[in-house]
Amino acid sequence: MPVVRGCDLPDDLLYDVPNNLWYRDLGDGTYECGMTMIATGMAGQLVAFTAKKPGKTIAAGKSVATIESGKWVGPAKIAFEAEITEANDALSADPKLANSDPYHAGWMVKLKPTDPGAVKDLTPGTAVAGPYEAKMAADDFAGCAA
């Protein structure tokens, strides 16, 4: 697993580095999506998570959820057009799950891409260290505190 500046980036995931999101192929044409450890490290402790409703199709670059922390409020923008098939109600009830377990319990939404080939533009976990090192340097983010 790549670790960049103390931030874990599991190599079995696909990454949208510019938007700090990860995607897990669920094997049935859908993907789980969540915030990376880098995103939660930059945002700080999450205090609110509001996902768009299942059944809604979201355009590439548009928000599937609004995330709020003590430092930041903003959108979670997806990398490809997709229909939301499920939202994580547990994360809505306890937004801190994204901080404590960003790659499992802290997932945000499940998505079905309108074009299954659209995920080809994501960065595989095995190749994500370099792009994230560059992004963290550009964002002046020191890394994930232990």
Please tell me about this protein's structure.
By secondary structure, the chain is an alpha+beta fold. The protein has a domain at 17-116: OB fold (Dihydrolipoamide Acetyltransferase, E2P) (Beta Barrel). 18% of the residues lie in helices and 34% in strands. It has four helices and twelve strands. A seven-stranded antiparallel beta sheet has the order 7-10-11-5-4-3-12. The radius of gyration is 14 Å and the shape is globular.
Short descriptors:
3-stranded antiparallel sheet, 12 strands, OB fold (Dihydrolipoamide Acetyltransferase, E2P), alpha+beta, 4 helices, globular, 18% helix, 146 residues, single chain
Summed up, the helix count is 4
Percent range of helical residues: 10-25%
**Principal-axes shape call:** globular
Task: Report the β-strand fraction as a percent range.
Answer: 25-35%
- What's the end-to-end separation, in Å? 17 Å
CATH fold type of the domain at 17-116: OB fold (Dihydrolipoamide Acetyltransferase, E2P)
H/E topology pattern: EEEEEHEEEEEHHEEH
The name of the CATH architecture of the domain at 17-116 is Beta Barrel
Q: Which CATH class of the domain at 17-116?
A: Mainly Beta
Strand count, sense and barrel status of the largest sheet are: 7 strands, antiparallel
Contiguous uncertain segments of 5+ residues:
none
Strand order of the largest sheet: 7-10-11-5-4-3-12
What Rg, in angstroms, do the CA atoms define? 14 Å
Query: What value does the average pLDDT take?
Result: 95
CATH homologous superfamily heading of the domain at 17-116: RNA polymerase II/Efflux pump adaptor protein, barrel-sandwich hybrid domain
